[in-house]
Write a structure and sequence with these properties.
The structure is a homodimer of 254-residue chains.
Chain A (H helix, E strand, L loop, with lengths): L2 E5 L8 H14 L4 E5 L5 H4 L11 H5 L10 E5 L2 E4 L8 H5 L8 H7 L7 E5 L6 H9 L2 E7 L2 H5 L1 H14 L5 E8 L6 H13 L13 H5 L7 H4 L4 H16 L3
Parallel strand pairs in A: 1-5, 1-6, 2-4, 2-5, 6-7
Antiparallel strand pairs in A: 3-4
Helix pairs in contact in A: 1-12, 5-6
The structure holds adenosine-5'-triphosphate (2 copies) and magnesium ion (2 copies).
The site of one magnesium ion (MG) has 4 residues of chain A, from α1.
Chain lengths: 254, 254
Amino acid sequence: QARVIAIANQKGGVGKTTTAINLAAALGIAGKRTLLVDFDPQGNATSGCGLSTASEQSIYHAIMGECSLSSIVVNPGIRGVDICPSTQDLYGAELELATVENREDRLRELLYTLRKGYHYIVIDCPPSLGLLTINALTAADSVLIPLQCEYYAMEGLAHLSETVRRVRDAFNPGLSVEGILLTMFDKRTNLSREVAQELQHHYSGQIFQTVIPRNVRLSEAPSFGKPVLYYDVRSIGAQSYLALASEVMNHGST
Amino acid sequence: QARVIAIANQKGGVGKTTTAINLAAALGIAGKRTLLVDFDPQGNATSGCGLSTASEQSIYHAIMGECSLSSIVVNPGIRGVDICPSTQDLYGAELELATVENREDRLRELLYTLRKGYHYIVIDCPPSLGLLTINALTAADSVLIPLQCEYYAMEGLAHLSETVRRVRDAFNPGLSVEGILLTMFDKRTNLSREVAQELQHHYSGQIFQTVIPRNVRLSEAPSFGKPVLYYDVRSIGAQSYLALASEVMNHGST
Ligand SMILES: Nc1ncnc2c1ncn2[C@@H]1O[C@H](COP(=O)(O)OP(=O)(O)OP(=O)(O)O)[C@@H](O)[C@H]1O
Ligand SMILES: Nc1ncnc2c1ncn2[C@@H]1O[C@H](COP(=O)(O)OP(=O)(O)OP(=O)(O)O)[C@@H](O)[C@H]1O
Ligand SMILES: [Mg+2]
Ligand SMILES: [Mg+2]
């Protein structure tokens, strides 16, 4: 039975997609069969793995009940990893879901059919707290929160924790916090160190040991359609995501 | 009659808020009375100017017709700049607006009453293409598109241009593109140079001469609640936004 992890933070550009792709790839290399669900209409997790964001059927059609989830699962050629691609159609889902029955539960129902075939399911979320992110939190066993070491990123954390609490109370009592992941850490700046210290103070016990440094190889890899592990495995970015994967594997029992 | 400029891009973390605050402050220093509208529920433009994101009344209440816009305008102590602050209530607006009359037009109607009092109105948008951003594009004379020099940021540009075209056809025939602003440009990386070259190739004529370099002073300033011009005016970040403001002033006739 797969462990489902949602990668969420309404703050934009904090490393959600980069974490979703590279954590999934690292879990795959460690021999864990992993499904990566791209639940962001931008489709960055889809294109970051070399797939097209213009396919006929995608997660949008599955969510709206027009096809099964298994019919859209694709193997992008990354060891141990399958993907549910996203397309721009998903932009319409936020408004279209607003008025349907059990609108928060659609993704959880869909994933139910596939959980037996994987060890992990990783869901990349858009930068918002709308119905797509709520669906992901309702479907997840835990939420992994990437956090850039910057001022604005800290600001949104209290509101995100509040949203997680509300989803736990209303839809998903088992939802826990997998952890807060510091991303784009730049040891040369005071800002990164100050934010990290402040986080340790307010959220101690919830922060991953692994810290992802700012590393240009991480931002170059998507233009080759590959996770960084297949672009430059010796880079500090790749090594950090391998370390993150072992922390995640040690957390759970799968 | 104020010129209304929306700062929009659905890609997260590309520098929308940083541009909105620092462009508004630079226009204020140049003697142009400027209204900064924080239309993002995250409230980063509000807190980045030292104001609280927990006030009783905000742009949310004005949009929902509960108070006038002028009653929520605040002077944050930045020369020539007033602000319409945002609070977390705005998170609810996307869903609440979904089923009301002329839902795309609410912000344009509100701003109509204030346009005479300012030279410029600058609107900070959330990282999405939902009803809040559509409202901002409907109310605007032009859209300024901040673009990080990274692969994923390039990907969303075609879809954003498509959305601008659709808003122009359906709601706002006068909507033009103020320009594409390259942000967080790092001259040490090939990626920044390659993205800049690719942009010049596909969007030539629409790109600002001014390029905003990656500069840590820009990310430090918000923790002091000040635009970078009031935190470190000699920094390259501050100088770049002063240059951007003169380009914007030369574009228009105000
Ligand atoms: N550790 C890192 N070092 C350097 N660049 C990074 C790192 N992590 C992510 N990036 C780059 O920063 C940008 C933002 O990251 P990413 O797109 O993964 O964030 P996101 O949270 O998914 O954004 P969005 O909110 O738009 O979904 C991307 O261009 C990515 O390549
Ligand atoms: N030129 C720059 N140099 C260094 N840091 C920058 C620069 N511009 C913005 N930043 C920092 O990068 C982060 C992202 O910028 P910002 O929050 O302005 O982007 P945004 O597009 O408004 O994000 P969102 O999509 O969440 O609204 C912030 O922490 C900001 O301080
Ligand atoms: Mg993303
Ligand atoms: Mg912003």
